[in-house]
Write a structure and sequence with these properties.
Layout lengths: L1 E2 L3 E2 L2 H7 L15 H7 L2 H16 L10 H16 L3 E3 L2 E16 L2 E3 L2 E2 L11 E7 L22 E5 L5 H10 L4 E5 L21 E4 L1 H8 L3 E16 L1 E4 L4 E11 L9 H18 L7 E8 L7 H9 L2 H5 L1 E6 L11 E3 L16 H14 L5 E3 L7 H6 L4 E2 L1 E2 L8 H7 L23 H20 L10 H7 L4
Parallel strand pairs: 7-8, 8-9, 9-10, 13-14, 13-15, 15-18, 16-17
Antiparallel strand pairs: 1-2, 3-12, 4-5, 4-11, 6-10, 7-11, 12-14, 16-19
Helix pairs in contact: 2-13, 3-4, 3-7, 7-13, 10-13
């Protein structure tokens, strides 16, 4: 029997799919979502985090894509899953990596902190010296060619605010108007970290990011010198994919977390926490549980380089294989030190940002809201802003959801009153840094989020219907007709 998507099983798998047992083995009880959630303990989740931190410590302090630390992380996850009876594959994919030898920005002789955006073209070692021209801020700053009406940016460095459209679009429009470089100003306090143009082919002019405060300094400057010595290369990465041998392969529940860290640190919250919670959920579920729907766990490579692993995976699926995926659950950062309690806004009830997810995403959001309400926590929504691995699934019209404890955004006063913590401070001050360690994890938030991971997996492994369900059969085909 062929498992659509990634696996093929033989007679033993077919017996398991039928829900039978062999010999004197007692039949397994159907998986219960609440029981599964209770089985995922904080101690077991932390055990996985300790292993990931140990791997990073043994490999130059990180687990970034393309490094021995990532290889060791993937080997650990794959072996853990095999030991629990899963069919495991580690498919390879090509991805682009990006290295920065130097980055500097001088404004009227003043040194400004600057970060090259991923896949920015290089200025060369001598840099670019040019006038700086600020694009007026509006509802879509630098996202429309008309934003440049009345501005002469030929031969200039453009200063544009972050927001609404991708960085790649902002620098492309600036280049079309004759700019020689672009500097993106963060729309929140703090430096602009982790920004990327998404692909080496997208980069038309050297592009960098600065903080909101430094953007104000630059806007008052006459000339700047921007130096970005960068290089993009093509490498091979791998994902870890594991599927139960039981459950319908026409209605796959897919669960994912990215496995790589940034080069600057061990990546324990980002995203060791998502990995550990997902891996422990898989371990407690086991490779051949008594479930109605197959569960496929994915541990993505090269997310920090632009969702490369998940993009490659979704692109590898034919239409039938995509149709077999009932939903996708994404877990990225679950233990931030000043945690938020956030669920992806599947119904766009917050009326902010990218809009609702594909049909069924609203039900996934309600599943998490209901679970947390049962433990006395009111969730807030968080936008599908494209910064994690749900992106390729949403693009394929696959309903998605998940929980999130926050990254570089700031906790509001209202949220601090509701959940505790410090207002007007980032959810995770250690985001993308060497301090993203186990010592800086909020274990209470991690415990609650990890249990929620298991609960949602248990719910959908048994039943895709009900008020919080997702489309099935002909309704799924109809809902995805626009794919």
């Amino acid at each position: 029997m062929r498992l659509r998507g990634v696996f093929t099983i033989g007679v033993a798998g077919a017996i398991a799919l039928a829900g039978c047992s062999s010999g004197d083995e007692a039949p397994k009880q159907p998986v219960d979502a609440t029981t599964l959630a209770e089985s995922v303990t904080i101690d077991s989740v932390v055990d996985h985090l300790e292993k990931l931190e140990e791997i990073a410590a043994d490999n130059d302090g990180n687990r970034a894509a393309g490094t021995p630390g990532y290889t060791a992380s993937a080997d650990y996850v794959a072996q853990t899953l095999r030991d629990k009876g899963f069919d495991v594959e580690t498919p390879e994919f090509e991805y682009h990596s990006f290295d920065v030898a130097s980055e500097q920005l001088l404004a009227d002789g003043q040194d400004i902190e600057v970060q090259a955006l991923g896949y920015s073209p290089s200025t060369g070692p001598d840099g670019i010296t040019a006038p700086i021209v600020a694009v007026p801020a509006d509802e879509s700053p630098g996202c429309e060619i008309t934003d440049y009406d009345g501005l002469d940016v030929t031969g200039a460095v453009v200063l544009v605010e972050r927001g609404v459209c991708p960085f790649a679009d902002k620098q492309k429009l600036a280049a079309e108007r004759g700019a020689v470089a672009a500097v993106v100003v963060n729309n929140e306090d703090g430096p602009l970290l982790g920004g990327t143009l998404g692909d080496p082919d997208a980069g038309e002019i050297p592009t960098a990011g600065v903080s909101k405060a430094d953007g104000e300094t630059l806007a008052a400057a006459d000339d700047v010198t921007l130096t970005l010595e960068t290089e993009a290369t093509t490498s091979t990465g791998r994902n870890v994919i594991a599927q139960t041998t039981t459950g319908s392969t026409d209605d796959v529940v897919m669960v994912g977390a990215h496995l790589d860290s940034v080069p600057d640190g061990p990546g324990i919250n980002d995203n060791g926490t998502g990995v550990a919670a997902t891996l422990e959920t898989a371990s407690q579920l086991g490779g051949s549980p008594n479930v109605n729907n197959a569960v496929r766990f994915a541990f993505w490579g090269a997310e920090e380089l632009g969702l490369r692993g998940s993009e490659a995976y979704v692109e590898s699926l034919d239409p039938e294989q995509k149709a077999d995926i009932a939903l996708y659950l994404n877990f990225d950062m679950l233990g931030s030190e000043n945690p938020g309690y956030l669920a992806y806004d599947g119904d766009d009830s917050d009326a902010f940002g990218a809009g609702p997810g594909p049909e069924g995403s609203a039900g996934i959001e309600r599943t998490f809201v209901d679970y947390f309400a049962g433990v006395g926590v009111d969730l807030d929504g968080t936008d599908f802003d494209g910064r994690s691995d749900y992106g390729p699934f949403i693009a394929a019209q696959i309903p998605a959801g998940g929980v999130f404890s926050g990254a570089d955004g700031q906790k509001t006063a209202e949220q601090a009153q509701e959940w505790g913590g410090t207002p007007d401070v980032a959810y995770d001050r250690n985001y993308h840094s060497a301090d993203d360690t186990l010592a800086n994890i909020d274990r209470e938030a991690l415990a609650q989020n990890s249990a929620a991971v298991a609960y949602a997996v248990g719910v959908y492994a048994q039943d895709l219907g009900g008020p919080n369900g997702v489309p099935t059969g002909a309704e799924r085909e109809k809902a995805r007709a626009g794919d």
